[in-house]
């Protein structure tokens, strides 16, 4: 079962360069959250701050009552056992085969015997679809397989919080679709709290329960997926719908002349909100909400065509009746 992560007033600078200021949000226990933002907005810095690799200048990160920004090294070591981390490139040890890479945290942080370690490693490798590849070196497999191996390693200590940094980086659309489904299925099985940093808009629109957007050195918005996908806030609307009209330009912000010229053009309509991905077995996740629930509860009319099922995929009962009352 996952735990919530409370982030309060987080501020970080490197020298005179402010990365972000007064970031405040809570990652709900057991839910999947995605953090977006233009390149250079400090998304990876945020992940490193959450596990104590980087200390913030101000603010707190509270997990199970412990503020990892100010706690002792001993307490930080214990809190880190709650985390699993998937780095951008998988971060495999090149001289070790996949089995030893995945087994590394167990050998480093537990006193388990090799027989038990083997059982755990093979279970996690089966979970990510890598049975039969355990004796291969990282250099002998594809980028997608390295990411899955990195995910298996992140899972061996049965983490309650999973931090995932740009899982779609370098992957083709098919492999990205497979890894997105894997995240949904994993969350259904282990109920861990997920935070995924990504640039992939399609993944953001279909995978998470919650979405956050870092922009211009602050957190522009964080909340339920439907809230952000129906938002009229200019930065959120532009970024989540991959539109050129809005305050974001090639050099982060557009100048006044560009913005003035756009006023006469009018905003393009919001695209329909897609269905959220379902677990492969069709059984809703513990914290998954019925499609359209947030919009109904908050009196928001979603864009026309929202919550229409993909005709190529089977529907669950909640998908088949998206207008039913929320659970």
Automatic annotation (TrEMBL):
Domain of life: Bacteria
Gene3D superfamilies in UniProt: P-loop containing nucleotide triphosphate hydrolases
One GO MF term attached to the UniProt entry: ATP binding
Pfam families associated with the record: ABC_tran (PF00005)
Bias (Polar residues) ranges: 309-327
UniProt domain ABC transporter: residue ranges: 5-241
Key words, A-Z: ATP-binding, Nucleotide-binding, Transport
Region (Disordered): 263-327
Keyword ATP-binding attached: yes
SMART domains: AAA
InterPro entries linked: AAA+_ATPase, ABC_transporter-like_ATP-bd, ABC_transporter-like_CS, P-loop_NTPase
SUPFAM superfamilies, per database record: P-loop containing nucleoside triphosphate hydrolases (SSF52540)
Protein name per the record: Phospholipid/cholesterol/gamma-HCH transport system ATP-binding protein
């Amino acid at each position: 079962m996952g735990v919530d992560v409370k982030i309060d007033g987080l501020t970080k600078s490197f020298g005179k360069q402010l990365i972000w200021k007064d970031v405040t949000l809570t990652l709900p226990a057991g839910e999947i959250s995605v953090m977006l933002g233009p390149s250079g907005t400090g998304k990876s810095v945020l992940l490193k701050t959450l596990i104590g690799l980087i200390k913030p200048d101000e603010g707190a990160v509270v997990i199970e009552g412990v503020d990892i920004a100010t706690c002792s090294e001993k307490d930080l070591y214990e809190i880190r056992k709650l985390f699993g981390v998937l780095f951008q490139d998988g971060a495999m040890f090149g001289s070790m085969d996949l089995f030893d890479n995945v087994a590394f945290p167990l050998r480093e942080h537990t006193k388990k015997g090799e027989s038990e370690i083997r059982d755990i490693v093979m279970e996690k490798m089966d979970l990510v679809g890598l049975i039969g590849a355990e004796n291969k070196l990282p250099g002998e497999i594809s980028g997608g397989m390295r990411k899955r191996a990195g995910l298996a390693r992140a899972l061996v200590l049965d983490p309650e919080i999973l931090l995932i940094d740009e899982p779609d980086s370098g992957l083709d659309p098919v492999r990205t679709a497979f890894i997105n489904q894997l995240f949904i299925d994993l969350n259904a099985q282990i109920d861990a709290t997920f935070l995924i940093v990504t640039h992939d808009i399609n993944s953001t629109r279909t995978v998470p329960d919650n979405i956050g957007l870092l922009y211009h050195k602050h957190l522009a918005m964080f909340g339920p997926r439907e809230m952000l996908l129906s938002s009229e806030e200019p930065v959120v609307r532009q970024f989540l719908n991959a539109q050129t009209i809005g305050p974001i330009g090639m050099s982060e912000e557009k100048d006044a002349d560009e913005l003035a010229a756009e006023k006469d053009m009018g905003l393009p309509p919001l695209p329909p909100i897609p269905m959220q991905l379902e677990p492969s077995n069709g059984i809703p996740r513990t914290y998954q909400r019925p499609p359209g629930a947030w919009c109904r509860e908050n009196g928001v009319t979603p864009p026309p065509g929202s919550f229409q099922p993909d005709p190529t995929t089977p529907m669950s009962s909640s998908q088949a009746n998206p207008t039913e009352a929320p659970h």
